[in-house]
Amino acid sequence: MPNKQMLFRITYLLLIISLALLAIYFIIQYLFPLFLACLFAVLLLPIIRFLHFHFKVPYVLSCILTILSAILVSTLLLFVAGVELLQGIIYLTKWIPNHLQFLVREVTENFNQWIHPIIQKVNQYIHNLPSEQHTLIEEQLGEISISLADQVAYLLEIILNWIGSQMANLPGSMTILIFSFLCTFFICKDWDTFYQYLLKTVPISYIKLTSNISRQMKEKVMKYMKAQLMLIFITFLIILVGLSIFQIKHAFTIAIILAIVDIFPILGTGIIFIPWSLFLFMTGETTLAICLFSLYLFVIFLRQILEPKFVATALGIHPILTILAIYLGFQLFGVKGIWIGPVILFISKACSEAKLFHIIWQYIKYNNVNVDKL
Fold first, then answer.
1. With contact defined as beta carbons under 8 Å apart, do 41 and 188 qualify?
2. What is the dihedral of CA 41, 35, 350, 266, to 10 degrees?
3. How confident is the model at residue 276 (pLDDT cuts 50, 70, 90)?
4. CA angle 193-198-201, nearest 5°?
5. What is the pLDDT of residues 285-321, one digit of tens each?
6. Which of 221, 259, 325, 329 would disulfide-bridge 236, Cβ 3.0–4.6 Å?
7. Are 6 and 365 in contact (CB under 8 A)?
8. Mean pLDDT over residues 26-30, rounded?
């Protein structure tokens, strides 16, 4: 049975954790450029130190060169992606109308062939009903039609509002990036000063504990990235072989695009494979449509089997826990939770391997925090 002192220490810890989470929330919400700057600094510091120690470049100059190189590479990648996206949009504006008209015509003809006899029978049945029931059914059908139209209009409104808000937020996003890179420079330049200040104000044992957790986190992130890259490569290889067997043109490029799209949860390769298969089916290429859809099902099946195993092996966690983390993340946070769940899981794993939970328990039970013996 926990005594009053243990309950007090538990309450005290929960209060500290709540305040820390609240502080992180406010930093991300209101000081997002600073948060990004800290993230950029952590990523760029190894490169800055490499230039400084191995090539004897002055430290401040190393900071400037590394940050400018990061900005240049990021800008170049965004420019190339933007150009490719613009070219794709221009191509699709020429390609979609003709094929869409053909697809609509085929769908309409097939719909008429399959559904029209059923509709005629339903109409005959409705007309044979008493006038009151006939009127009631017609009113309900009219209400359903109006409701569907309203839903479609609402969906289009949401999409257009989202596009407009994203376009309106572009200047603000550029301002955030500019402030973030400026803060990154000063954080990197004065990193040693910050570290020395911490050494003077914080006990060395706690700094070692934080460094240990940070090291465990870096290892987990790197292993997780390797697992995801391996999954992407396997997806790419399977799609490339499949498309080559089906004699699809530009199989290599299509396989790369599909492998990258497969990263996104919920959507995955289905956002391309399903409309593609449907279009081929409607245009009479039934065999190829079935082959592509079968390839899609095989990729989905293989990824569902391999992803928990790869991620679990990389993080040292049982696959069941990984699946549960993904499911609970989706239930609690929606689509974002598919990423948030595993992230929380491997943060917990890193803290466990750094013996943080053991330290917390020692504090709660014995009011003793001894980091040095861990």
1. yes
2. -110
3. confident
4. 125
5. 888 889 999 999 998 888 878 877 777 777 777 767 7
6. 259
7. yes
8. 79
Angle between helix axes 337-353 and 204-245 (nearest 10 degrees) is 140
Q: What is the DSSP string of 345-373?
A: HHHHHHHHHTTHHHHHHHHHHHS----TT
Does pLDDT of 59 surpass 70? yes
234 residue type, one letter: I
Closest by CA to 232, choosing from 265, 261, 271, 267, is 261
Are residues 239 and 295 in contact, defined by beta-carbon separation less than 8 angstroms? yes
Torsion sign over Cα 191, 196, 202, 208: positive
Q: Which residue type, as a one-letter code, is found at position 99?
A: H
Say yes or no to pLDDT of 358 above 90.
no
> Quick check: 100 pLDDT over 90?
no
Region of 265 (left: φ > 0; alpha: ψ -120 to 50; beta: rest) is beta
Pairwise CA distance, residues 94 & 100, whole Å:
11
- DSSP codes joined into one string, 103-157: HHHHHHHHHHHHHHHHHHHHHHHHHHS-HHHHHHHHHHHHHHHHHHHHHHHHHHH
pLDDT above 80: residue 255:
yes
Give CA–CA dist 343/74, Å, rounded: 25
Q: Going by C-beta distance under 8 Å and a sequence separation of 6 or more, which residues neighbour residue 332? A: 340, 341
pLDDT in tens, 235-252: 889 999 999 998 887 788
Q: What is the pTM of this model?
A: 0.62
Q: Which residue has the higher pLDDT, 280 or 132?
A: 280
Cβ atoms of residues 104 and 283 within 8 Å:
no
